[in-house]
Design brief:
The structure holds 2 protein chains of 2 kinds. Helices cover about 65% and strands about 0% of the residues of chain A. Chain A has helices at about 1-15, 20-30, 35-50, 55-60, 110-120, 145-180, 180-195, 200-215, 225-235, 240-265, 270-275, 280-320, 330-340, 350-375, and strands spanning about 90-95, 130-135. Chain A has a two-stranded antiparallel ribbon. Chain B is mainly alpha-helical. Chain B has a domain at about 170-395: Orthogonal Bundle (MetI-like fold), CATH 1.10.3720. Chain B is globular and about 90 Å long. Chain B starts with a helix and ends in a 7-residue tail after the last helix. Classes of the chains: A mainly alpha, B mainly alpha. At the A-B interface, α7, α8, α12, α13 and α14 of A face α3, α8, α9, α11 and α14 of B.
Chain lengths: ~375, ~400
């Protein structure tokens, strides 16, 4: 009786303590790292802007995605004629005779204040609407802010989808090899060792040239079946589909090795043995007991790999093997500045995609560091 | 007197026994066995890479003689050129039904090949016609196996690129001319990476959680987040266009001439090497810092402190030696990356190195050059991987080959 009385407060105390799930723990640790919080906010902002980009275009705050329907008069209103690059803040006449949607919403003072710049006064008169280049533009009159925002779509989707694909493939491969072990493991790891000797960039460049040429060859032809579907899909995605395939061809290897190592280290642990002892199936052991334990380091390493995918895409677009021409991409923008002599004049337009690129990769690096502190306590502080 | 002779003898002995000692230090016989096994294992990998590259490059639409962006040649000329370079042969296997030998259905002898040979050598030899039967059972008389056979004899064929094939430039010669150019950039960048990265990492670890640490790590993170295609244009604008300290591109053929101790060489070397080296040093700095921080918490460092050693001795003599183990092993991937890493830099700074050759060869469908450069990259990559394993065991004797 006395024992029970004595035990009661202790159990009460335990009940009072707030229960914390692993995710809550990770979030608590992650929150401590202020730089990572800022990075997370930055990434969310960039993702938001990239997803809603076409909305901004419809509202008239951004130019058209490709910049070709935006028939701005190339010679800007208040700029010397010899320089065809619009400077930041310069406005040009617009040949389009439609108002942005939001002009109708405004009235009174609000309308008067923006009328000169963005909205027609009374009747649509072609010469009166202007397009203002907030961050300048290129020699064809493309708005550089618009290009940068739409370029974020390419970079982010390459980063996220590249990471997701490599995580999924690597995870399946590595867990299978590590869990079943023995001859299967040996064979699968020999294959991985073999692929480890293939130079990444060489294969990616070869694949990209192959895909671009195939896409160009069938550009005008009607093609049915799977091939036609894939080609159409790739065309609609601006060449991104083939880029994913090329980037994903080798990137899963490191992930597979990591996943296998993790599984090997957890496979013989007591809790797995206990699960097996009570008769859990292999599937249950993998999905319920192993996966939650090994996911942390994998996610961290994949987050830190995202800048690599973004760099590779930018580099490929830089040498003209990335996205299709006309699709806005940061690498292609930098390349355009370079080929048109932008190192010597109009340098500001080089800065815009550069800063966007560095900011994005910086944010992913900090996010990865914060995630590592939160998800992989053994590596903290490295 | 005694002391000096023994010292001299021991120095002599050191020199004599150095190879054996080095071998023992690196793991002795087991190391050699390991090395042989790895090299043997690399051969099928290289063969498979050649096969993949070959298939992929030949799958590319178009050919070296009707490359994209060029005016199409008449068909008979393309046929002649294909015959000259052996491109009319079947790709992988010379099957009986293939189109290489179009006439007849005779399996065995499908023609005679005559050649004039000089027997006995020199000018005094007897000149006679040699007649050879050409058999269709030569299943391996295909482009791939012919290439393989030649490649095993270190003959990588003539370049098919329109600019090079008229001068009969061999792929091997072209690579031998371009490789040193790429190596200059890569090797100096690795050196810069270590010279910059290790001190930064050590400083950051020694002054852990202080302003020095934060500044160093900020530099490292920025270096990692800035790709070459961003850093290089900025460097060009600042140092080449604005300050005019360096030329934008090399105009004197200095890259081919090779390293020399002159101001001009340093000038053209500076920007590419900084572009590559800063990225490398960022990774090295972070690795050094993490590794040193880990070592500083080990027991033997506490022992050294407890002995009353000065902090400087503890850090630079006791801790740093072990902290360098993971850092040293980064040399392997760096060696492999020295070549592929220079891709970006070569294109931006128009350095006549291998990266540019490769990109050009792909767009020109220069099959032999694609194969040659890919093979070289693979060899670098594989030897880099082997080097990592060897360095690991050498530096950390707890790891053994098995």
């Amino acid at each position: 009786m006395a024992v029970a009385e004595g035990a009661e407060p202790i159990s009460l105390k335990e009940a009072e303590r707030p229960r914390s799930t692993p995710i809550a723990d990770a979030w608590r640790l992650f929150r401590r790292n202020k730089a990572s919080l800022v990075a997370l906010g930055t990434i969310i902002t960039i993702v938001f802007i990239a997803i809603t980009a076409s909305l901004w275009t419809r509202l008239g705050l951004l130019d058209a995605r490709t910049g070709v329907d935006a028939m701005h008069t190339i010679n800007p209103v208040n700029q010397a004629q010899q320089d065809s690059y619009p400077d930041p803040g310069v406005c040009a006449r617009d040949n389009q005779d439609r108002n942005p949607y939001w002009c109708g919403w405004l009235s009174g003072d609000a309308l008067a204040s923006v009328q000169d710049t963005y909205c027609f006064r009374d009747e649509p008169v072609a010469d009166q609407r202007q397009w203002c280049y907030l961050l300048g533009g290129d020699s064809q009159g493309k708005d550089w802010l618009t290009q940068t925002v739409y370029g974020a779509q390419v970079s982010l989707s390459v980063g996220f989808l590249g990471a997701t694909m490599s995580l999924i493939v690597g995870l399946i491969y590595g867990v299978t090899a590590g869990f079943y072990g023995g001859r299967i493991d040996n064979l699968m790891m020999r294959i991985v060792d073999f692929m480890y000797g293939i130079p990444y960039l060489v294969l990616v460049i070869l694949l990209q040239v192959f895909f671009t040429e195939i896409a160009r060859e069938y550009q005008d032809q009607e093609r049915g079946g799977v091939v036609g579907f894939v080609l159409d899909l790739n065309k609609d995605m601006g060449g991104l589909l083939f880029l994913f395939i090329a980037l994903g061809s080798l990137s899963w290897i490191g992930m597979a090795r990591l996943a296998r190592g993790q599984v090997l280290s957890y496979r013989e642990k007591e809790f797995v043995e206990a699960a097996r002892a009570v008769g859990a199936s292999n599937r249950r052991i993998i999905f319920v007991h192993l996966l939650p334990n090994i996911m942390g380091p994998l996610i961290v390493s994949e987050t830190l790999a995202i800048p690599g995918y973004i760099f590779t895409e930018a580099f490929l677009s830089f040498i003209g093997l990335g996205v299709q021409p006309g699709t806005p991409s940061w690498g292609a923008m930098i390349s355009e500045v370079r080929t048109r002599g932008g190192f010597f004049s109009n340098r500001h337009i080089l800065l815009v995609p550069s800063i966007a690129l560095v900011m994005t990769t910086l944010a992913f690096n900090f996010l990865g560091d914060g995630l590592r502190d939160a998800l992989d306590p053994r590596l903290r502080g490295t | 007197m005694e002391v000096t002779t023994t010292e001299r003898r021991s120095a002599l002995q050191t020199i004599i026994y150095f190879p054996a000692n080095l071998l023992r230090a690196m793991g002795g016989a087991s190391m050699i066995k390991f090395l042989i096994r790895r090299i043997l294992a690399a051969i099928p990998v290289l063969l498979a890479i050649l096969l993949v590259t070959f298939t992929l490059s030949h799958l590319l639409p178009g050919g070296p003689f009707n490359a994209v962006g060029q005016r199409r040649m008449p068909d008979y000329m393309i046929r002649q050129l294909e015959e000259k370079f052996g491109l009319n042969k079947p790709l992988l296997i010379n099957t009986p039904n293939d189109g290489y030998f179009p006439d007849g259905d005779d399996w065995k002898i499908i023609g005679y090949h005559t050649e004039t040979r000089t027997e006995g050598g020199g000018t005094g030899g007897e000149v006679r016609q040699v007649e050879e039967r050409v058999l269709r059972i030569d299943l391996l008389n295909s482009q791939f196996f012919n290439y393989l056979w030649d490649a095993m004899h270190l003959d990588f064929g003539p370049s098919l690129n329109v600019a090079l094939r008229d001068q009969n430039v061999q792929v091997g010669d072209e690579i031998a001319r371009r490789l040193p150019v790429s190596m200059q950039v890569g090797v100096f960048a690795v050196i810069l990476g270590f010279l910059l990265g290790i001190p930064l990492g050590v400083l950051a670890a020694v002054y852990h959680n202080s302003a020095v640490d934060y500044v160093a790590m900020f530099f490292a993170v920025m270096g990692q987040a800035t790709p070459g295609i961003v850093l290089a244009p900025i460097l060009i604008i600042i140092f080449a266009v604005e300050l005019r300290w360096v030329p934008v591109i090399d105009q004197r053929g200095q890259w081919q001439a090779g390293p020399e101790l002159s101001l001009y060489y340093l000038q053209i070397l500076a920007l590419p090497v900084i572009t590559l080296g800063v990225g490398m040093s960022a990774g090295i700095a972070r690795l050094t810092r993490a590794s040193l921080l880990q070592v500083l918490h080990e027991d033997y460092v506490r022992t050294a402190r407890a002995k009353g050693l000065r902090e400087r001795v503890v850090i630079y003599v006791h801790a740093l030696k072990n902290a360098m183990i993971p850092v040293a092993t980064i040399i392997g991937p760096l060696l492999a990356g020295v070549l592929t890493g220079t891709f970006v830099v070569e294109l931006i700074f128009t350095i006549p190195g291998l990266g540019k050759v490769f990109v050009d060869s792909v767009s020109a469908r220069d099959y032999t050059m694609i194969m040659g450069v890919s093979l070289l990259y693979s060899i670098f990559l594989i030897s880099g991987n082997i080097l990592v394993d060897i360095l690991y065991t050498w530096l950390d004797p707890r790891i053994r080959f098995d």
